[in-house]
Design goal:
This protein is of the alpha+beta class. Helix content is about 45%, strand content about 15%. It has five domains: about 230 residues, no CATH class; about 240 residues, Alpha-Beta Plaits (2-Layer Sandwich), CATH 3.30.70.2220; about 80 residues, no CATH class; about 100 residues, no CATH class; about 110 residues. The strands form nine sheets. The chain has a six-stranded mixed sheet, sandwiched between helices. This is Type III-B CRISPR-associated protein Cas10/Cmr2.
Amino acid sequence: MDDNRLWQTKLLARLHDPAEKALVLLRDPAGHEGGTSRALQRLLGIEQIAGETLPADSTHDSHTLIFEQGVSRSMYEVVKRADWLAAAADRPQWPMGEITVSTKRGQTRTLKVADWAQVNWAKRPVLIHPLTGTEYDLGRLGGLSDTDFHDIKSRSLAHFARLIARAPDGVDWRKSLLAIWRFGSELQEQEDFGKLGALWRLLPADTRVPDHSIWDHLDLVSAFGGAAAADPDGETALLALSIGPVQPFIRAARSTSDLWAGSHLLARLAWEAMRPVCETLGPDAILFPRLRGVPQVDLWLRTECGLDASLFEDCDWTRGGTDSNPLFSAALPNRFVALVPRARVADLASTVEQSVRGWLDSLGKRVVDRLLDAVGLANGSEQYCHQQMRDQLHGFPEVHWAAVPFSLIRARNPDRQTDLDTSRLSDAIAPFFGVAPGEDSGFLQSPAWRVLQREACWADGTTFFAPNPGVLYPAVYDLAERVLAAAKAVRPFGQSEQRGWRCSLTGETEWLTTDPEQLETSYRRQTDTLWARVARGTRVARARPSWAKPGEHLGALPAIKRLWPTLFAEEVREAVGGDLQRFVVSTHTMALAHQIDQWLAHGGQVASGWSEALKTHQPEAVALPRRLVSRYQRQNPEGLADAKRLVGLLEIADGLRLEDEKEAQRLKDLVEDSLSSWRKPGERVKAETYYALLLMDGDRMGAWLSGETVSGEGVSYRQSFHPDIRAGFDRHATGNRLIEDYGRQTRALSPNRHLAISGALNDFALTLVRHVVEVEHLGRVIYAGGDDVLAMLPVGDLLPAMQRLRWAYSGHDPSHRSGDRDGLVLSQGFALLDKRLLRLMGEKATASCGAVIAHHQAPLGAVLRELRAAEQQAKTRGGRDAFSLTLLKRSGGIRQFTAKWGEPLQVLSDLRAFLGAEGVSRRAVYNSLAWLKDLPDPQDDGTMLERMLAYQLARQTRSKALAAHHDVPGLARRLTALTLGESEKRLEWLANVLGVAEFLARETRNTDND
C-alpha cells in the first residue's frame, strides 16, 4: 500500500479525539469533537462530513472525519472500526438512548449516552488505578472547575500544531505521526495548560471509566487502524515474539561491567527486533512494552526518523557525560506483543529475525576489527577470528513468534456485527486445554465471557452493551501466548563443532584467535595470542584491561559483551555529543562509598605522603557513585579528584601484597590515615571491605499480563466506574440480572491493562530505580529492565534501599514520609517526582528481593549464584512479597534469613541501630547467640524468650538510659513476635537476624571473626 495512506490513516485515528476531551466534556457547547480535533483536521486538510452518523447498533460517539486530499471513505471506515474495536477491548460499554436530530438530509436517528451516565470530570476529577481500582481524587487539590476550557483548547492546538512536520509538498505524514505519538502527552514548561503539566499524561479517555488515559486509547486506535490499513483485506493479527536465551547470556560475567553489558546488550537486541515493526507500522503498533519515552527509541526517532532535535531538549538522555545517562539503562524486555496486518505476519517475523541477527553479526565484525586494531594486527583482510565470530554467532539469538488473527472471530449475520461466531477461535484454543473441538475453553469458558457475549438491554429495551470482536482480546492474547510457548518448546537445535581450547569465561566455544593452531595448546602456555596481547599491550599499543585481563581468552559472545561498554559509549557520543564515557563502579569503590562520603563531607584532607604516592604509583581515577559526584563536584572538586584516586591506591596495594608487602601496607595506611583525618586524634578507621548486591523481581508478572486475579479480588466493571456513575448504574440495573452480573464481574484482560503495566514498569525502571539507588542512596544500578533490578550498594544503604525500592515498585509508601526525601512521593499506586505524575503497578503488586553482602574480593560468579539463590528463597520460602538476605563472610561463615517486607526489615534496622550505638558492647549478640544454642524452639507464647532476650541485650549497654532510648524491651518483644511467626527452625531464624544485625552494625567489616 501507499505509505502516505498508512500514516494518514494512523494520524486520522490519533486525532479522532482531542487530548483535552476530559476537560471540555459537558462544558464546551461545541462538544469535544468541535474543538482541537476539528482545528487540527483543518490544519492538516481534514474536514467533517455533515450528516454522517455511525450505525444504529454502535454504542460510541460519531467521529465523522475524512481527508480532503483525495482520501477515500474507506479510510474513514477503517478508523471508525478501529475506534469501535479499541473501545470494546478497553472499557465497559455504556447505556445509550435514542434521539432524533435534524440535518440537511432530513431527520436521522442516532444514539446518545444516557443523562445519568455522563460526568463533568473537571468538576469532580477522579482517576482510578486500572490494576487495583484505587481512587485518586484530584478534587482534594481543589478540583479543575476553574480551568478555562477555551484557554486549554487554544494551548492544546498550539502544542499539537508545533508537532506537525512539513514536507516540500505539504505535510510529512510519517514524521507528524511520530512526533504527535511521542510528544503529544508531554508539555514544555511554557505550555503548562493551567498548571496541568503533571496531569496531562494521565487525562482519561473516558470520564465515566477514568482508569486509562486518552493516550492509551489513541495508541490503540492508531494500532488497530494502521494494521488494518496495511492489510489487503483490512484484517488484523496479534503478534507475540520473543528472543533468547536470556539468563545464560546475562549470567556469564566476571565483573560488574560484564553484568551491565549482558543485560544492556540483550535490551539492545530486543530493540533491534522491535525496530522493523516500528519502521513499518509505527511504534504505537507495539502494545507491550510501551515504547514512548524509552531513550533508545528516542534516539532512533531523532537520528533515523529525522524528528526535530529541539523536541528532545528536555529529555534526560540528551544530557549527562557518564553512564547515569538513561541511554545506559537496559530498559526493554526480550519480548513484545504487537498489532500487525494479518497478511504480513510471516514477512514481518522474518524481517525481525534477519534484523536482529544481522545487527549482531555486524557488531561481531566490529568487535574483531577493534581487537585486531588494538594489538596492531589489523591489515584489512579476513582473518580466522572473523570466521570464528560468524560461526559462533550463527543462530543467535533464537527468535520465536506466534500470531493469531482477529478474523477467527466473525459475525454470524453481516448486518449485525455484534452477533459473534467464536467457533473457529474455540477450535484453535481447544488443543491447548485438552478439550474436544467445538467445546469452549480458556476465556471462552470464563464468567467474564458468559456475561459479555450477550447483548444486554435495559427494561425499556434500549441497548446497554453489545459485544464486538474487540471484547475477545483476552482470548486472542491467551492463544498467542500458548502458541508462542509451544514454539519455544520445539525449538530446533543446531550443533556447532568446537575442537580447540575453550573460552575461559563460558567454556562453551573456542576462544578467538588469528592462528587456529594456537587452539591446540592451552592458552596458559602461550604469550603471543590475540588475547594475551590485548591484556598486556604491545610496543605499539597500550594494554586494554577492560577488554581482557591476564589469562582471559574469550569466545564470540563474551568478547562482544566485554567490548560493548566501549562501543556503545562511542555510539552515544557520536549521536548525543560531548565526551560521554562508560564508567563502572568497582566492588571495592562501592565498599568504601560511605567512608568516602564522610571524608568529603569533612573537607577531604589527605594524609602526609599523598603527593609522593600519586607520583610514584600513578593510580587511575576510578568511577564514584553518582550521589557522591553530584554532591561534591562543586563544593569540593579537589577532594573529589583525590577520592577518585584513593580507591586506585588501595587496588595497587592489593596487587603489591605478594611482591612488596611493606609498600603495600604503606599505601593502605596512607589511605586509612586520609579517611581518618577528620576524626578525633587516635581514632583511626579501617577501610571497609564489604559491599552489597541486590536483585529484585516483580511477583507473578505472567499472571499480571494474562489478566489473572492477583493479590485478592480483581477490579470489577462497576469498580472501574467514576463514583458519580455507580449510584445511577445500581439504580438502573436493579432487577436486571444480566446487567447486575456485568457490574460485579472482574474486568477481562484488555490492551489497556498491557499498556498500563508496560507504562508502570517503564517509569519504575527508567526513573524511580535510578532515583532510589543513585539519588537517595550511594548505590549504582547495574540494570533495571521492567520489573527486574540489579543494583550494587554500600552495606550501610542496603536495608533502606531494599524497602524503598519495594514501595516504589507498587507506588505506595505506608510510612507517608517519602515526600521528605529528595522530592519523591509514593501514594495509592502513583508517584510524584520532579513535577511528573507517574502511574505504577499499584498496591496489590508485590515484588521479592534477594540480597548478598560479600567481600569485594570474593569471586563475582560465586556471589551472583548466592544472589539468585537468595531471590528464589524469597519467592519460595518467603512466599513472595518477601526478601532474603545472605551474608557471605570472608572467613567462610554464611548467615541467611528470609522474611516478609515491612516489620521484619524495620526490626532488623532498629536492631542494627541499637547494636551500632556508642556504649553497646560488641559482645551483645555473641552472648545472646551463646545461650540460644542450648534452647529448644519456643512453643509457648514466647514470654520466656522475650525476657531473656531483653535481659541479654540490656546488660550489654553502658547505661539504662541507653537501653531505654532504643526501647530494648520493645525491641525484644518485636523480635520474639517475629520469631514465633516462623513455622520452623525459629531459633535458627532468630540467630541469623541477630548475626546479620551485628555485622551490619559494625562501622567497618574488614575483620569478620565471630
